[in-house]
Design goal:
This protein is mainly β.
Length: 149
């Protein structure tokens, strides 16, 4: 990133289309303002804020863990802290992520197709995947890839 230039932070969005099929789209957070969090702190780039009720947790997926097909329980940001994990959407796309990569899981309201509903996820490699999860109370959107900018 060039000093003084607005940040461009990539993330994966797991979303559901109008037919109930989950997909993953590469998106970017780009709406930032340079301002102080609270005076007298120096300004820093701040992005969009969500004011809904949220739940924050850390989850640890053991080595070799692979979940069954399922939907995210709520729209949620997932940020790997250590280790690697994968997400496979119903359209067959598999994305692997590691520390610092971001995913927004919003695959609610999928329709079961050939035994698949939502996504599968699991660990990659020989160390557990430690993930920070921030769940929103707000309802999911449908057919809205890259809803955050």
């Amino acid at each position: 990133m060039i000093p003084g230039e607005k940040p461009h932070i990539p993330y994966w969005h797991l979303w559901t289309d109008e037919q109930g099929v989950s997909h993953q789209t590469r998106c970017a957070l780009t709406e930032f303002d340079l301002k102080t969090m609270q005076a007298p702190a120096d300004p820093q780039w701040q992005g969009q804020r969500t004011t809904d009720e949220m739940t924050v947790m850390v989850t640890v997926q053991p080595v070799g863990w692979v979940g069954t097909w399922h939907e995210n329980p709520k729209p949620q940001w997932i940020i790997p802290l250590s280790g690697r994990w994968f997400v496979r959407s119903m359209d067959g796309k598999r994305v692997e992520m590691g520390p610092g990569e971001i995913s927004f899981g919003e695959d609610q309201n999928t329709a079961e197709t050939d035994g698949r509903k939502g996504h599968r996820s699991g660990t990659v490699g020989d160390v557990p995947a430690v993930l920070m999860v921030v769940q929103f109370a707000a309802p999911p959107t449908i057919a809205s890839p890259c809803r955050f900018a």
